[in-house]
Amino acid sequence: MNRPRHFNLLARVLHWSMALAILAMLFVGAGMVVSLQYRAPLLDLHRPLGIAILLLAIVRLVNRLTRPTPALPADLPAIQKFAAHASHWLLYALMLAMPLIGWAMLSAGGYPIPMFGGVHLPAIVPHSPEVYGMLRPLHGVLAYVLFATILAHLGAALYHAWVRRDEVFGQMANGDRQ
Amino acid sequence: MPNPTPRRGSPLLLLPIALIVAVLAALFAWVGGWFGHHDLTPQKMMDFAETSGKQASGFRRAHSKGVCFAGTFTPAPDAAKLSKARAFAQPSIDVIGRFSAASNNPYAPDGASPVRGMAVQLKTDDGQEWRIAMNSFPFFAASTPQAFQAMNEAGKPDPATGKPDPEKMKAVLAANPEIAAFQAWAKTAPKSDSLGNTRFNGVNAFRLTDAQGADRMVRWSMRPRLPFVALTPEQLKAADPDFLIADLDRRLAAGPLLWDLVVQIAAPGDPITDPSKAWPDTRQEATIGTLAVKHAEPQATGPCRDLNFDPLIVPNGIAGSDDPVLRARSAAYSVSFNRREREISEGKSAYPVNQNGSAR
């Protein structure tokens, strides 16, 4: 088995840029739904940023599945290995599902889905109050699940960097050339 | 090769990690309004609306009683000079819309309030969409959503006396004197005998952008071709609770009802962000199109029920102003829509299964 010491450049660039984009997206989303004054301008940002994250997540998933990845430390307890794998696949699932649910939810609500400059996305599910009434709360609940998973991921990354002081944090932070 | 036996850090370093995670979680909860927010939110506005009348599950939180309509919008030949929106260039656009009464009681008698609403959805052949939400009042009740909410709260009957506390309203009027003008209008405005001869006003300002990129701030209104006819007090007293809908059906059986969509163009210094201040009647006006309402349908089975007539859904060439009431309408309608669609989704809708002419 020939596994690299670090994630490849594409994986690292996508990881750090999407980390910023997804955190921005979560804060924008949480703030806009309770704002009288800023909901509309924040929503105009939320829609295209969500679609951008969806596209990047697809590229990232393909890269993840087709390129070799560095191994977890051999001495990592099995429970932590399991938590690492499970939380990463949950993150992938949510970064793909959240924009798709958002898109489907606007479709089911009979809303237009403007991006920018008059460009619109088509509806991906039929206009239906039953479907909208289910997807809209789901979008909100999963946003909080995603945020909690990101916090756990951040906490674990810092644990590897500061407490265990193993190679895990560097696998995503550094390239092969020292 | 990675170092097989790294030197571990102190477990005390878990404390700063926990602190970082906790601070981020707290920041997120604060942004999401879980604590520390004393501002008015759309949720608070809708919570209040639900308690202020006979809220029915699955219905809008305001303007609950309504009827769907279908028709066409035909832009005026010169309208395209004001805005590059496709709605002003496409020869004819099929529209759907909704007439409504103001309260959140879907069974409110049509004569109860002078406030009536008209909403229109225009989908053009370039895939863009324009939703218009108008009312029969000539200007909005208050300058800000906060003042509007304070007015509604002060107007709610005190459970002890069954009447609103006049001291509370006095305080609201002292802080927001513009509300007095609206109250005077609501008290004295004659009610027309038909939706077909009612004028509907957008009251909020929008920006039209033409093909050259020039901007104009406008307010629009739907002006009926039929002349205004006021109900006499005797007619009002004797009127059926659903007389407006019956009248609409009767008139539409004879032919379409027409409204001209007219924009008033702001002059420098006109209040753009204050919908409680009407612009002078002497402002330049332009007729930008004609709405022909052809067919009406109960909202329980019609296409308008499950649409959010969010006035900030506008095509390229039209943009909302910074009017805080306009922004708040968009936010509040969204919460109303989310709540009623969820109720319908959960099977809690109070819509009658069989239409019997009421609660439309």
TrEMBL record, chain A:
The keyword tRNA-binding does not apply. Residues 6-175 form the Cytochrome b561 bacterial/Ni-hydrogenase domain. The chain crosses the membrane at residues 45-62, 89-106, 141-162. Keywords: Cell membrane, Electron transport, Heme, Iron, Membrane, Metal-binding, Transmembrane, Transmembrane helix, Transport. Its cofactor is heme b. The keyword Cell membrane applies. It holds the Pfam family Ni_hydr_CYTB. Its main location: membrane. Belongs to the cytochrome b561 family. This is Cytochrome b. It comes from Duganella zoogloeoides.
